[in-house]
Design goal:
The structure holds 2 protein chains of 2 kinds. Chain A is an alpha+beta fold. In chain A, 35% of the residues lie in helices and 15% in strands. Chain B folds into 3 domains: 56 residues, Uridine Diphospho-n-acetylenolpyruvylglucosamine Reductase, domain 2 (2-Layer Sandwich), CATH 3.30.43; 116 residues, Uridine Diphospho-n-acetylenolpyruvylglucosamine Reductase, domain 3 (2-Layer Sandwich); 110 residues, Enolase-like, domain 1 (2-Layer Sandwich), CATH 3.30.390. In chain B, helix 10 packs antiparallel against helix 11. Chain B is globular. The chains are: A alpha+beta, B alpha+beta.
Chain lengths: 155, 294
């Protein structure tokens, strides 16, 4: 079926079967491989993208269900090759180990800070409860999100 | 990607109205499937736990069923396609129905709560539904629509056995109504291993107390620990009309021993019984405080 998706501000005309998930279409048809394929069952959060302002699991939504929506992937955060503050803070705080969970965590953090610019550590931990880091570097991840929040508030 | 996680093929439509949706559902019956949030259905299809539908009827975008409304006379009305996160954000729910808010706080991840719908949580018939437990004590009524007809059922009548509800193949859950419950206290308690698991047991209590601490209304519901979410009527009958005292949680605990609990790899039935006793005690304390505060 012919569908139209708006991803990172660009309109894409695609021909996809209705049974394909948004994650499959992003990665296989659009070469947007930032969102990762982890558990496939909604437990790990590695496939998180932002749709109309809210973090969504792209492995549990059909591509065809997302026409007429604003989809943002981690690739959409950079501006002229410059990393977003959240991405930079993940690097500065060594909040990346193997890196597999990182795009999902960055997108979840973005959604959190867009709605709550000054979260407590408890609120950060609660909000990212659906993003699993199997390197278990959670302390650094919370540090990164907290310092990204501080910098974003200054801007 | 691993082949076993590929969703099987189906025909697809996204009706623009509820009446279109139920008309198409009526045409396909058992070979049609309603897709709302997708957090349960798509996982089942990926795992091969469910026969793929011939027609997938995507109702996730039907804005007409995405609402939370409240007035003192009719109480709370929730559209079946309201996302869990939206229901939790409702000031009315947080203020007047804290047991519902507490149930959602324990459900899944931020992402899942942004996707999963109230209707999907109930209509899927999962014995682990968190929302069913407060809805049972609050006396929720469900509107079930089919082509050109609708009926209303009490939530007690929804669950028949695990994953089997009273919904016919041509029916769709469209709305949940919860009466306005003045001067009463309510509480929800859950126990699980992690912040995001399905849990082992959930308990909700609704209580109304007179000036003399006489209980004019008492309801107790348990979910996940039993085959289906249900009210514990023996306990309700025993305590309604009595004056509350310190022996209540002990009396309830004794009566809970007569019920049958799920015994599986998540937890033994003996363990679930013990958990239910503890959760009931906690919920009772919370509900009584709220009832006394008015």
């Amino acid at each position: 079926m012919k569908i139209t998706l708006k991803v990172n501000g660009r309109i894409h005309e695609l021909d996809v079967n209705p049974n394909r998930t948004l994650l499959e279409v992003l990665r296989e048809d659009m070469d947007l491989i930032g969102a990762k394929c982890g558990c496939q069952t909604g437990d790990c959060g590695a496939c998180t993208v932002i749709i109309d302002g809210t973090p969504i699991l792209s492995c549990l939504t059909l591509a065809i269900s997302n026409e007429d929506k604003e989809i943002t992937t981690v690739e959409g955060l950079t501006n002229d090759g410059n990393l977003h503050v959240i991405q930079r803070k993940f690097i500065d705080n060594t909040a990346i180990q193997c890196g597999y969970c990182t795009p999902g965590l960055v997108m979840t953090a973005k959604a959190l800070l867009d709605t709550n610019p000054n979260p407590t550590d408890e609120q950060i931990r609660d909000y990212i409860r659906g993003n699993i880091c199997r390197c278990t570097g959670y302390t650094k991840i919370v540090d990164a999100i907290r310092s990204a929040a501080e910098e974003l508030r200054k801007q | 990607m691993k082949e076993r996680f590929t969703i099987p093929r189906f025909d697809y439509c996204a009706p623009g109205s509820v009446s279109d949706a139920v008309r198409i559902l009526g045409k396909y019956g058992k070979t049609g499937s309603l897709l709302a949030g997708g957090t349960a259905l798509l996982v089942d299809l990926k795992r091969g736990d469910q026969v793929p539908p011939k027609m997938m009827i995507d109702i996730g975008g039907l804005r007409a069923l995405d609402f939370v409304k409240f007035n003192q006379r009719n109480g709370l009305r929730i559209g079946a396609l309201t996302r869990l996160s939206r229901l939790l954000q409702s000031q009315v729910v947080q203020r007047h129905y804290p047991a519902i808010a507490d149930a959602i706080r324990g459900m899944g991840t931020a992402q899942v709560c942004n996707m999963a719908t109230v209707g999907g949580n109930l209509g899927g018939g999962s014995p682990c539904s968190d929302l069913a437990v407060p809805f049972l004590v609050l006396g929720a009524r469900l509107t079930l629509r089919r082509h050109r007809k609708e009926r209303r059922v009490a939530i007690e009548d929804l669950y028949i056995r695990p994953y089997k509800t009273c919904l016919n193949a041509n029916e769709m859950l469209t709305e949940i109504e919860i009466p306005c419950l003045k001067n009463s206290g309510m509480a929800f308690e859950r126990f699980g291993r992690t912040a995001v698991d399905l849990g082992l047991a959930k308990v909700a209590i609704l209580i109304r107390l007179g000036a003399d601490r006489k209980c004019s209304l008492f309801r107790l519901a348990i979910g996940t620990a039993m085959k289906i979410p249900k009210r514990i009527e023996n306990v309700e009958k025993l305590l309604t009309g009595k004056t509350i005292d310190a022996t209540w949680s002990h009396q309830i605990a004794k009566m809970l021993e007569d019920e049958e609990y799920v015994d599986d790899w998540r937890a033994s039935s003996d363990y679930r019984l013990e958990i239910c006793k503890v959760l009931t005690k906690r919920a009772l304390e919370k509900a009584v405080i709220m009832a006394e505060a008015g």
